[in-house]
Amino acid sequence: MQDILLNRYSAPVPRYTSYPTAPHFHQGVTAQTYRDWLTALPAGSTLSLYAHVPYCDRLCWFCACHTKHTLSYGPVRRYVDALRREIRTVGALLDGQCKVSALHLGGGSPTLLSPQDMILVDTALRTAFQFDPDSEISVEIDPNDMDDGRFDALAAIGMTRASLGVQDFDERVQQAINREQSFEQTRWVVESVRAREVSSVNLDVLYGLPYQTVTTVASTIEQVLSLRPDRIALFGYAHVPWFKKHQKMIDETALPDAAERLAQSQLAADLIAGAGYVAIGLDHFAWPGDGMARALADGSLKRNFQGYTVDGADALIGLGASSIGRLPQGYVQNMPATGEYQKLVEKGELATVRGTALTPQDRARGWVIERLMCDHAFSRAELLALFGEDAKPVLRDAHILAGDPASGFAAYGGDFSVAEQAKPFVRSIAAHFDSYLATGAARHSAAV
Questions:
Q1: pLDDT band at 43 (very low <50, low <70, confident <90, very high)
Q2: Which terminus has fewer CB within 10 Å in the chain: N or C?
């Protein structure tokens, strides 16, 4: 049965960290639109902040993030000045009426920042926004950046979760993706953040990389498990050289095929689950007592541009070049080009250049896609209660899919769910509810 599903669902589809997905954002959503949406947020709303640092001191060839390589710190310092200016501009529009429940520093490589600049960005954020005393502060860490000064600065800004990219510990794989990072180096970072009382560590692992095999993946997972991270993310490598030109440095003949990718992902998932972790959605794992495992159990698990999350804030505010925000009315995205972004914010303007306003159908379909990605299921009664008449076209699509015995999707009473053997293909099942997918020219990564 799984061979049938693999053949059916091997076509590339979005990762569904939003709906509509980013390729369907448009320039009809402007800086003025964003200004109106921000000022319409009710007093007392909760905010999640994402601040993007689009620089790395080395370029990993597998990476599909918005970043650029720099050997000089000058451009980074100028960018920090611009980021602080944008923080002040956005914060002034909200006038302290909303409270921050979470902050995520991502990239690129936010740990490329000097300790002094980490403190400056944090000070700007805490001056412009009101933080909840229990707010979660998560930071993406490149172990190659780290030294005692940076560890201390992260502790000073109140980091509560450290997220480290592992990818694979096999030396041949690391050389093929230009990401050399030893197990010992990774263990040193994990021990260093824990010594500074960081409460949670997340490790990211990739499958589907050049020269990876089930053997190398198993070895990497065993080493990852020895570090006892609180969460593990197991991502499939997204080979998109038409979108990220540096991925052309990767030898495509060394990439595993769809069947091998599936075998790698399933072996890794079995090893992680066998160590006592709870499987979360498509590709995350957490200790049973972790907040993400609890959110899965009580139905409050969410999905956003950082992947699976327990973040239930009313709005996500994206800061920095290319950052995406989500407000009750829709999505906004900042200017991706770093130089143009800096020019906009240095004039005191918002950097929004595109986005999308949500329609009632978007909300209904987005809810179904999120529940499938998080729970592998959704309730017909809940869908109707939330969206009324707008739920009916979505339900028709669900019944069509459930009526196909080879779909891996079925209806049971008032619920729709993904069969156990079809869960690795949930992105493709979710794509059935995407009314935009067939209308765009965007290309996506492999579904498995």
A1: very high
A2: N
